[in-house]
Write a structure and sequence with these properties.
311 residues; alpha/beta; D-Maltodextrin-Binding Protein, domain 2; 3 domains; five-stranded mixed beta sheet; 12 helices; globular; disordered N terminus
Amino acid sequence: MQKKLLASLLACALAFSLAACGASGSTSGTEDAAPAEETEAADTAGEEETAQAEEPAAQETEDSAENVELVVFAAASMTETLTEISEMYASVAPNVTLTFNFDSSGTLKTQIQEGADCDLFISAGQKQMNQLDINADPEVNTEGLDFVDEASRVDILENKVTLCVNDDNTAGLESFDNMAAALQDGSILMAMGNSDVPVGQYTQKILAYYELDEEELAGSGVISYGSNVKEVTTQIKEGSVDCGVIYCTDAYSDELNIVDYATAEMCGQVIYPAAVLKTAAHPAEAQAFLDYLQTDECMAVFEAVGFSGVE
């Protein structure tokens, strides 16, 4: 009897002990879960705060980029091509607004020298670029001007000098040889650019090649002048002159008839240099656009109107 009683007491003690351990384990598990949940919540809150801090910074950068206005001074003969390329560039650099100033390279050079806002300059001749480049021959840069970022300067295009007539071509001109002979006998009126305009300077070389005296011809009334190549083109198109000397790109744009091309012996190569200016408000964006102008995509636009790459 005593043995049975002792066994019963031992069993009760064991059961009580097991129940106590179970309760202790359950409490411990609950206590362990609470810190884990608190840590996860803290991490989530930290991530949200970080995201909120980064968002304004990114937005500020984007807004700042949208305000960039890039001012490009370019020769008048590039009006159509650069206008088309500007539409293409809008998808490449949507944060950049391109503002163009098209005119004769001599006029653009003077405007830059006088302090006009300009980030990128594209000239139709080396002379006007050299006049702004401190590293150029002092005999060309006679005023010691220092506007050109030499590291950015590059020859990007070559054009051709042409003799053009309108559809009527009443003088029956077929070549520069015809033009030279007709100028000598005073039977035609020819349009050319002023002496400060690259296309005018190329025409002067052609006249010298034929040993013609420009001053004498002008005095006899057989030469009409234009302040840029577009003005010369207009005179040909309207028929106010018998012929004119312009670039093949302008002849293409205005659908004029090209009767002859000047050779390098007659007037040299027609090279278009470009450079970022030291006074540029946005030199990085100017360099980026200059790089874009040299891509295959842009060269296809230039070549379609008669330009070619410089070899």
